[in-house]
Write a structure and sequence with these properties.
Radius of gyration: 24 Å
Number of domains: 3
CATH class of the largest domain: Alpha Beta
Number of strands: 13
CATH topology of the largest domain: Rossmann fold
Helix content: 40-55%
CATH architecture of the largest domain: 3-Layer(aba) Sandwich
Distance between the termini: 63 Å
């Protein structure tokens, strides 16, 4: 295994908090492989770049020679993690969770070394507990302890209901750590309460408490909210290469360095040099952003696709040559005329009429290269074929 200082340098990259660093050092000094835990609830079928921050950290531990365990929370997903949410999650059926699990595994292997990974499902132990076991487990916590969770406390003070099953979630995640005897648990900063619950439950069970290693929450494409599919501000690792590159190019300049540090394998010293170049205006941030897009696409799609995506972006958006014919659509509407909102919903660009109206009012909708300013106009089948462009990344040609 690498010397302690080298391990710490790699482990601490992109980490904002360790509970506790002294405990981590003591565990590493033993010179033995540690058990590293990362839990993922398959609440949707897709992994986006926000999910990959912790997955990348788990891969680093694999490369350092430690034992990586990926816990698929097929049981906890039926509750849904309440962390970071001001409302109760909708409960998922076993059928939906089962479909999501397979998709999660396939995508996780784009990051993790399959040959050095142990995958377990927490249904393996939770499905075997009887009600007496559950009572004994939850009795180790008090309501006061649960309300140390920021979101439980805030929801209670704001008069927002909290269901009993939500209070059990941190206990379940903590019990996962007891079962696999985790030395370190990885998670975003929103997982702090759940990880601390695991430390407490391990101690109560006579085990040595795990270390909590916390990574920052990745900011989404909107520049202000957590990357999330529900907010449509995400980059999926199954996105087409050119779409991934184009979405990276849409981020604000102040996110470039965060994305480099959390999403790529570029050397940290090189990243610091790029940060200085941006601050001193020695380099146009656009050029550094292109390098970022290239690195991210290369990581998930390969160097050939990364080069293609870069050239595609430069041709399409830098040179203003938009290849409409590469994205053709048939008029698959039951009516001969539709609203702009219906058209944008068909393309999965927006979910609501107000979103579509805002795009038009901001000058982001074009038909046949002409900007459309009137949201009330109808799009007619009789006017096909026509080209369209929505914002900077969505374009194509509609035919009869």
């Amino acid at each position: 295994m690498k010397p302690l200082n080298e391990q710490l340098k790699i482990i601490k990259r992109g980490v904002v908090d360790i509970v506790t660093e002294d405990d981590l050092i003591q565990k590493l000094k033993k010179g033995k492989p540690l058990t590293i835990k990362l839990g993922i609830d398959p609440t949707s079928p897709d992994i986006h770049l926000g999910h990959t921050v912790a997955l990348n950290k788990l891969r680093q531990f694999q490369d350092l020679g430690h034992n990586a365990i990926l816990i698929i929370g097929d049981y906890t997903a039926m509750i849904g993690d309440p962390s970071g949410r001001m409302a109760e999650r909708p409960q998922l059926s076993k059928e939906i969770i089962s479909k999501n699990v397979k998709s999660y595994e396939e995508q996780a292997f784009k990051i993790l070394d399959k040959n050095k990974l142990k995958i377990v499902y927490n249904s393996e132990w939770f499905s075997k507990l009887n009600f007496e076991d559950v009572i004994k487990l939850v009795s180790k916590f008090t309501i006061a302890q649960m309300f140390e969770h920021d979101y439980f406390d805030k929801r209670f003070k704001d008069g927002i209901s909290i269901s009993l099953h939500e209070l059990i979630y941190p206990v379940m995640q903590g019990y996962d750590s007891v079962v696999i005897k985790a030395d370190i648990e990885l998670g975003g900063t929103d997982q702090r309460f759940n990880v601390i619950a695991g430390r407490y439950l391990q101690k109560e069970s006579g085990q040595e408490s795990q270390i909590g290693l916390f990574t920052p929450i990745l900011t989404g494409l909107d520049g202000k909210n957590k990357m999330s599919k529900s907010l449509n501000n995400y980059i999926g690792i199954n996105d087409k290469p050119e779409d991934m590159f184009g979405k990276v190019m849409s981020i604000s300049d102040d996110l470039i360095i965060q994305y480099f540090e959390l999403l790529t394998d570029v050397d940290i010293n090189e990243i610091k040099n790029m940060e200085e170049d941006i601050k001193s205006s020695r380099v146009n941030p656009m050029e550094i952003k292109k390098k970022l897009g290239f690195e991210i696409v290369k990581k998930y799609k390969g160097e050939k696709e990364a080069e293609y995506s870069k050239n595609y972006f430069e041709k399409t958006f830098s040179e203003k040559e938009i290849p409409y014919d590469e994205h053709k659509y048939k008029w698959n509407f039951s009516n001969d005329e539709i609203t702009i909102a219906e058209f944008m919903k068909f393309l999965n660009v927006v979910k609501t009429n107000s979103e579509a109206k805002r795009i038009v009012e901001q000058g982001g909708f074009y038909i046949n290269d002409k900007r459309i300013n009137d949201f009330t106009i109808k799009i007619k089948k009789g006017e096909t074929p026509f080209t369209f462009k929505i914002g900077k990344k969505v374009f194509g040609k509609v035919e009869k």
